[in-house]
Write a structure and sequence with these properties.
Layout: E1 3-10, H1 14-25, E2 30-34, H2 47-52, H3 54-73, H4 88-113, E3 116-119, E4 122-128, E5 131-136, E6 139-148, E7 152-154, E8 167-168, H5 170-173, E9 182-186, H6 190-201, E10 205-209, H7 221-234, E11 237-239, E12 243-249, E13 254-259, E14 265-270, E15 272-275, E16 279-281, E17 314-316, H8 327-341, E18 355-357, E19 362-367, H9 370-376, E20 380-386, H10 391-396, E21 402-408, E22 414-421, H11 424-436, H12 441-445, H13 456-465
Parallel strand pairs: 1-2, 1-6, 2-3, 6-17, 8-15, 9-10, 9-15, 10-11
Antiparallel strand pairs: 4-5, 5-6, 7-16, 12-13, 13-14, 18-19, 19-22, 20-21, 21-22
Helix pairs in contact: 1-4, 1-8, 3-4, 3-6
Amino acid sequence: MAKQFDVIVIGGGPGGYIAAIRAAQLGFNAACIDEWKNDKGGPALGGTCTNVGCIPSKALLQSSEHYEHASKHFADHGINVSGLGLDVAKMLGRKDSVVKQNNDGIQYLFKKNKVSFFHGRGSFVKAGADGYEIKAGEETITGKHVIVATGSNARALPGVPFDEQVVLSNDGALRVGAVPKKLVLIGSGVIGLEMGSVWRRLGAEVTVLEALPTFLGAVDEQIAKEAKKAFDKQGLKIELGVKVGDIAKTAAGVTVNYTNAKGEAQKIEADKLIVSIGRVPNTIGLNPEAVGLKLDERGAIVVDEECRTSLPNVWAVGDVVRGPMLAHKAEEEGVAVAERIAGQHGHVNFNTVPWVIYTSPEIAWVGQTEQQLKAAGVQYKAGTFPFLANGRARALGDTTGMVKFLADARTDEILGVHIVGPMASELISEAVVAMEFRASSEDIARICHAHPSLSEATKEAALAVDKRTLNF
């Protein structure tokens, strides 16, 4: 007889493993199925985020930033470095060890919370009187509730499959064994910019080809322009409004033919090509047709606002459903679904989900952009404060960027906060908390912030909404 569970989670990424743990905390007999393998064939929990996404990319970003500081900026601090070298293999090894620590940490959390783990692919077999029969690797198990958290896959260019040697997805981009002399990225999204930053810092000549006429169209326009100025200054070559044509692998690497914004035919040769044109929901091997699970035209699982699918007691969260493809959004949905199964009122507010691009300078935002408010006809006030006028930023030697507040012109409620600059990923949390409690810009302006700190720029930007900055 198949093992029976109250809740079965298919997928062990941020949405899946968090959902399983929360379900177990709520008293359910929970199981999680995940097929990721490490180099030795063992389980590698954490999904794309831990294995080939958020975690390893941040490890390489940190390593490459250390290298750039040592090679270009230490002298400003009176630190003279001679004989500076670069060991890419060791850098990649450190990245792999960080990944393994996270993999092992999730396994520990499963044991701590008594979550049963099955290593292998999870797929629907059939629906029955006791719930849903699920193939879990080599076993078959039954669950009353099923949470699908199978994530997403990198989108390939038509006719140009990933070989992860020359034509790279985020996976291959994290495994390049030596610094390429020339690197081309197609797409200026989050993954592209982060990986382009890594290899540029380490010495690669990086060109980004973006089809859209604007840079980072989802970002507040003023913030995006400030970021592009910084990237241009760093030597990251970004071409907008391009139309990519034929791509051919060569003995030396790859050749990309494209038309630039002026309509001129161009050709660029490179050692490696990273394709970063978005991601697609992953339902490979899930066998949704076995139980009649409904998918949309994008291949995403159709869910309502509470993550319920077309089937009773089947839920879906994270990248495989609508909404932003962000690890922390998946986590919030995973927790909310587990709580809804328990009869509680799980909460996810898409308007207060923060976004971060971990380049240097970092870019982070929450809420609406200025262009969105204009398009919606919302009356608003804006306030900005540059890190150039922040004492801690000067001491750090990193004064690029600004903090920007957008508030309702009548009520002063914060509608959006946008940051480009040092530690933006950490600074944005204050704005998320403020917006979740529907705070006004004056609330932030009147809160005491430590001095000297980067967070003072947040306070000053809030003061700027009322045109009363104190340090600029």
